[in-house]
Amino acid sequence: MTEIYKKYRLTSNEEPTDEMLEALMEDVAQAARESSNKAETEKQRRLSEAVHTIAVRRSQRKHVLDD
Predict the structure, then answer these.
(1) What would the pLDDT profile of 12-64 be if each residue is shown by its tens digit?
(2) Which of 4, 10, 34, 49 is the most exposed place for a label (fewest CB within 10 A)?
(3) Is residue 4 within 8 Å of 25, Cβ to Cβ?
(4) Contact (Cβ atoms closer than 8 angstroms) between residue 5 and residue 27
């Protein structure tokens, strides 16, 4: 986060400068990118876990049917 983000709040009575708005928007964009990357990583982890769980259950079912 930039210093501007820490100092300026949109509830302030003064209008932000173009530079302040640009810095605020960049901070928000960076946070959105980080959040998106974290969500994608978690999605991939869960998909891998599901694939593994399905493979284990199919293997167990095949073993029971073969007996």
Answers:
(1) 677 888 988 898 899 999 999 999 999 999 999 999 999 999 999 999 988 77
(2) 10
(3) no
(4) yes
Asked if residue 52 lies in contact with residue 36, where contact means CB atoms within 8 angstroms, the answer is: no
Backbone angles phi, psi at 32, to 5 degrees: -65, -40
Residue with tokens 């073969």: 66
Q: What global pTM score does this model have?
A: 0.66
> How far from 19 is each of 11, 58, 65, CA to CA, in Å?
17, 58, 69
Q: Please state the φ and ψ torsions of residue 28, each to the nearest 5 degrees.
A: -65, -40
Q: CA 37, CA 58: separation in Å to the nearest integer?
A: 32
